[in-house]
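Hello support,

Our group uses your service weekly, and this is the first time we've seen a run hang past the timeout. The protein is Transposon resolvase. I'm not sure whether the cause is the sequence or the server load. Input pasted verbatim:
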Amino acid sequence: MAGVNQLERDLIRTWKHKGIELNKKEGKFKGRLKKYHKNHAGMNYAVKLYEEVDMNVNEICEITNVSRASLFRKLSERNS
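Update from on-call engineer: The timeout came from a worker crash unrelated to the input. Re-ran successfully.
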């Protein structure tokens, strides 16, 4: 019984991936949207505080509700 279930699961996964590929070609499937897009007010404010104000990163993250990892990732993207 487990073998039949596994086979069915593999078929479903294959169909799903074929459908996603087809939709990508047609421009219908774009994937997951980013949480911090370029117009995200909190992230932009956090970067501004980091560059202009002498504040601790933890304080900036508490004020703007942006995670530390996301803030550092955005800062490294801007520097490169």
